[in-house]
Amino acid sequence: MKIDSFFATRNSRMKASEIRELLKLLDQPDVISFAGGIPDPALFPAEKFRDAMAVALSDGQHALSLQYSTSEGYPPLRQWIAERMTQLGVPCGADNILITSGSQQALDYLGKLFLSPGDTALVGWPTYLGALGAFNAYEPRFDRLDPMGNRSADELRAEAEAAGGRVKFSYLSPDFANPTGITLSLEERQKVLAQAEALDCVVIEDAAYQSLRYEGEDIPPILALELAEKGDLDQCRTIYCGSFSKTLSPGLRIGWVCAARPVIDQMVLLKQAGDLHTATLNQMAVAHVAADGFEEHTQRLCAHYKARRDRMLAALTRHMPDGVDWTHPEGGMFVWMTLPAGMDGADLLATALRDEKVAFVPGGAFYPDDDGRNTLRLNFSSPDQVQIDEGIARLGRVITEALA
Ligand code: PMP
Predict the structure, then answer these.
(1) pLDDT of residue 370
(2) Please, is 157 exposed, middle or buried when counting C-beta atoms within 10 Å of its C-beta (0-12, 13-18, 19+)?
(3) Which residue owns the Cα nearest ligand 1 atom 11?
């Protein structure tokens, strides 16, 4: 019996990557890894979570925290998020908020909500690998999101129709994107919105890193720009996905969607069918911890990660040979590097691990097609400053050697 012959066709696009196999080598203690994308556990507010969990499990509260609860989410947490969205320029109420099990679940549900097989999703080239993974299960066609480019809405629409579907949404992460670290200017955000209006499609705004800004001024979310124009959130086509993973804890799996009520209402049905609701205890703990000094906590995080980013940028300037370029992220966790054309990031990773015990993610993984082979992603939130100096020196040697 071949069990995989029973798998539904949508599974054919969901493959484990070869890179994952290589990255298993990272467990060796002497490897310096820029391949992760995870927060520094030293900054988890563990003490606050211990207290919050104790409160949520106390006699008065355990009947709530250990019980089934509503699919929409824990009301005080939805309320706190609605206030935070209001501060970000999106005045809204708790009924515009759905709590999800991480923003990753929101991406899955949005794929399920909008994509029929053959529909087109416009995504950055490169884009967040986890979004490609989430959307892939719904068998879309991916096309380039490039609102500053020269393909008109009519051309994009015609190509989507020729492929047997419609352009359903643009997906992007406007602040300190994963993997590039790039932030969209106000003008670029307006273009994204204008293009979605012209195409009559939805915008999925992934704000996973929004709180992690190390320099420059906050730029309003695309949803805020649209709401300012339309004056009614229920008329907005932008769907904002937020997360506590990069600020408080990824392990608790708490994210949210802020959107027009018809979108929230339909996603509540998907949530009911998917997992009933997000873990109540975790929602209660996050509500407690978020209400107790969220701003101060994110300021501490930003100071910590800014120092690591600065250290990485300085080390890159010292150690990289001519012909290598990299981004200057204003926040987030990643620097994106472009090697001279013809170099291959996956080959380089094999050499880097073997000769210098340093790791990164080859950039090709973040493209829906075979593009970007000469790129790579470097994470600066996990390694400490000494590891950053040493690891970038090693990487500089590997690249210099490969170019020689
Ligand atoms: N969006 C982006 C851009 C991410 O980088 C991540 C996590 N790596 C997520 C969404 C998912 O995060 P979570 O589900 O933990 O909220």
Answers:
(1) 83
(2) middle
(3) 104
Compute the mean pLDDT over every residue in the chain, rounded to the nearest whole number. Answer: 96
* Domain membership of residue 11 as a residue range: 3-45+296-403
Confidence of residue 14 (pLDDT cuts 50, 70, 90): confident
**Total-model pTM:** 0.97
What pLDDT digit, counting tens, does each position of 163-177 carry? 999 999 999 999 999
- The string of pLDDT tens digits covering residues 247-271 is 999 999 999 999 999 999 999 999 9
- Same domain (yes/no): 224, 365: no
Instruction: Name the token pair of 195.
Output: 């293009």
Q: Ligand 1: which of 100, 104, 256, 278 to mutate, judged by most atoms within 8 Å of the beta carbon?
A: 104
Closest CA to 238 of 198, 192, 271, 270: 192
Of 293, 317, 338, the position where a domain reaches its end is: 293
Encoded tokens for 302: 């930003």
| Phi, psi at 198, each rounded to 5° | -65, -35
CATH number of domain containing 240: 3.40.640.10
Dist CA 82 CA 78 (whole Å)? 6
pLDDT-derived band at 13, boundaries 50, 70, 90? confident
**Structure letter (DSSP) for residue 331:** B
What is the 343 CA–ligand 1 centroid distance (Å)?
29
In tens, the pLDDT along 98-142 reads 999 999 999 999 999 999 999 999 999 999 999 999 999 999 999
Q: In this structure, which residue's CA is closest to atom 8 in ligand 1?
A: 37
Q: What is the 6 CA–ligand 1 centroid distance (Å)? A: 31
Res 391: pLDDT = 98
Q: What is the DSSP string of 93-133?
A: -GGGEEEESHHHHHHHHHHHHHPPTT-EEEE-SS--HHHHH
Same domain flag for 244 and 274: yes
Q: How many domains are there within the chain?
A: 2
Residues 272 and 310 in one domain: no
Best of 103, 129, 283 for a ligand 1 pocket test (most atoms within 8 Å of beta carbon): 103
